[in-house]
Amino acid sequence: MKRKYKILLIIFLTLGASLVAYKGIKNINPNPKFTVGQKLDSLNGVYVYYNGGVSHTGERNLSEDGYNLGLKYQCVEFVKRYYYQHYKHKMSDSYGNAKDFFDPLVKDGDLNKKRNLLQFTNPGKSKPQIGDLLIFDGHTGNPYGHVAIISNATENEIEIIQQNPGPFASSRVKVAYTFINNTYSVDSDRLMGWLRIK
Length: 198
Known about the structure:
About 20% of the residues lie in helices and about 30% in strands. By secondary structure, it is of the alpha+beta class. The termini are far apart.
């Protein structure tokens, strides 16, 4: 066999083995304290489920009327399921990654037509409220972003509830915010903004 073909065969076998290993690792549950699909928390009767590894995806979850809630048990699936069950809200565009919920072309306080929700920027003029969806941009370890719901709020802090924050992370996290010069700013470099039911 010519050297060129041997090199191509080695590359092909290496790529194939890497893909098999990635798929296997993706489906490994790194936290033996929980099983994928186990109830962890709830907000107004809507459950947060354990997902395993952050990039693990299950089957697509559809409502009884066929509305796409997302892939079990990703962060998007929880917030869409919550808005559907609690508010009876369907998003105009029911697909997309977490970071895609925020439309950078929509002005602060205007309607995000894809999600049929009001959109606010971080920092911005609107105070974050209970029930708002927080939209986080992606990063090196997670290019898809993250989305969570504000479950509680005080004068200087919000509590969020989230699904799939990581196999060892909490479903509830508190984040500080400030109000300076008539502007609200949530203390997160990756937080693009929040969405609110009309």
